[in-house]
Amino acid sequence: MAAALDRSLIALALRLAEAAAPVAKRYFRQPIPIDDKADASPVTVADREIEETLRRILAQERPEDGVIGEEFATTRPSARHTWVIDPIDGTRSFITGKPCFGTLIALLYEGEAVLGVISQPITGETWLGAAGHASTLNGAEIRARGGRTLDQAYLYATGPEIFTRADERDAFARLSGRVKNTRFGADCYAYGLLALGCVDLVCEAGLKIYDYAALLPVIRGAGGIVADWTGAAPVLAAEGTTGRILAAGDAALFAAAQEALALPHP
Amino acid sequence: MAAALDRSLIALALRLAEAAAPVAKRYFRQPIPIDDKADASPVTVADREIEETLRRILAQERPEDGVIGEEFATTRPSARHTWVIDPIDGTRSFITGKPCFGTLIALLYEGEAVLGVISQPITGETWLGAAGHASTLNGAEIRARGGRTLDQAYLYATGPEIFTRADERDAFARLSGRVKNTRFGADCYAYGLLALGCVDLVCEAGLKIYDYAALLPVIRGAGGIVADWTGAAPVLAAEGTTGRILAAGDAALFAAAQEALALPHP
């Protein structure tokens, strides 16, 4: 196991999540303008204000660190420590009033995700994963569940529309056809439920670094497995990721899900 | 507008929701056995215990009234007042730890739905609709939003799998292709979000009386429209329903959605 992450960095990540929460709450279920980005994904004043708030704190507390965020340009890309921020993961849940979105905060150390926070400000749930520590939900240790076969597994994905390529749709359909049940509509919250031992699999595509960097330490620190669909560690850079993420309660289920996805060999 | 519903019946409905909440909370995110019913839908000890709890209170307070519930046999089907209970709507959300399920409680008076409660015990949200009263969320008046065109509309459905017939799937795909965005995975909570003015459309099929009876007064008392896909009032009996429910923020959007569904004439 890696050396335990410094407590002051953990405290800072939690402080960032605490700073984001009142902004999200202030705009939640309020009529606010929604802009469509180039990729047609929506963004609101809440997304931008949260990211600005977190960047301001980081500039003050960790002026040497890099920042990769969903809404603004990357700063100091070659820094040893880089923070990765998704101010509101699940903006479509946020703008329709459903409390399954989350603020995602990750810390990369020399390119490895060593700290992750998933914060759901409406339900008041904060997942924390940090290298060398067991993952927690609101301070209580959590554990993914193992020992499930594919036909007993509950599978989550944000929605069928995230599989934009035909081969991804076919692969997901194969996996979905083998599990006990497939549910949609939980965004990052689904990975939190997996780390909690309530969900067995999450399978998605088209994700960006800020969508998944924070999930990795949370799931790994709860004993779960998370990787790209090939089993390789997800690329922790703004470019070059396949965006295909698979998370499972244990390694045997991960392997079975991979086999069901049955991606053609490249 | 119908005569305002007696406050004592409203108080009783809220008392039922309050009695259900601690049972749901006690079993939420706990490892509990899950049985598959004849239609492969899951049921847990929580579903059964909540329905038993509510039936016990009703037997004491309203011994003459009928009860239709999801888990146990109908009693006094010809009573003037009949309570309709879904102890946990969204059992698949419940068993995967996602707080979008709800306890649904409706009161029928001479076959009309005059009172409805949607209770989400984990987030502590209780929607109430009652004939002659404006609908409320935790006591505060709510209002569905109107004035949206189909291409601006956010549409919810529990999941693609609820459209079991090919003609239903095709109709939903037509509607989904015309709206701004389609989200899945909110169960009864989606109708609550519509009544709150956060969501514009909910379209589902295969529902039973206990899935929708409570939704009708909540949506109508918030100024929204809810009917079956033909525009007719949903059948409020355990048998004879098409189970196809369409809810919209206003009548113009309801009509546009109906046209998009473009059901073949019978």
How would you describe this protein?
With 266 residues, chain A is of the alpha+beta class. The relative contact order of chain A is 0.14. Chain A has eight helices and 14 strands. Chain A has two domains: 7-141, 2-Layer Sandwich (Fructose-1,6-Bisphosphatase, Chain A, domain 1); 150-261, D-Maltodextrin-Binding Protein, domain 2. The radius of gyration of chain A is 17 Å and the shape is globular. A seven-stranded mixed β-sheet of chain A has the order 3-4-5-6-7-8-9. The longest helix of chain A is centred in the N-terminal third of the chain and has 21 residues, at 7-27. Chain A binds chain B through residues 29, 92-93, 95-100, 122-123, 154, 156, 159-161, 181-186, 189, 193, 196, 198-199, and chain B through 29, 42, 92-93, 95-100, 122-123, 154, 156, 159-161, 181-186, 189, 193, 196, 198-199.
Report the β-strand fraction of chain A as a percent range.
15-25%
Number of domains of chain A: 2
CATH class call of the largest domain in chain A: Alpha Beta
Q: Helix count of chain A?
A: 8
Q: Taking strands numbered 1, 2, ... along the chain, how are they ordered across the largest sheet of chain A?
A: 3-4-5-6-7-8-9
- What's the architecture of the largest domain in chain A in CATH terms? 2-Layer Sandwich
Distance between the ends of chain A: 33 Å
Question: From the structure provided, what is the oligomeric state, counting identical versus distinct chains?
Answer: homodimer
* Biggest sheet descriptor of chain A: 7 strands, mixed
**What is the global morphology of chain A?**
globular
Stretches with pLDDT under 50, minimum 5 residues of chain A: none
Whole-number mean pLDDT of chain A: 94
Spell the H/E element sequence of chain A.
HEEHEEHEEEEEEHEHEHHEEH
Tally of DSSP β-strands of chain A = 14
The amount of helix of chain A comes to 25-40%
SS-based structural class of chain A? alpha+beta
CATH topology of the largest domain in chain A: Fructose-1,6-Bisphosphatase, Chain A, domain 1
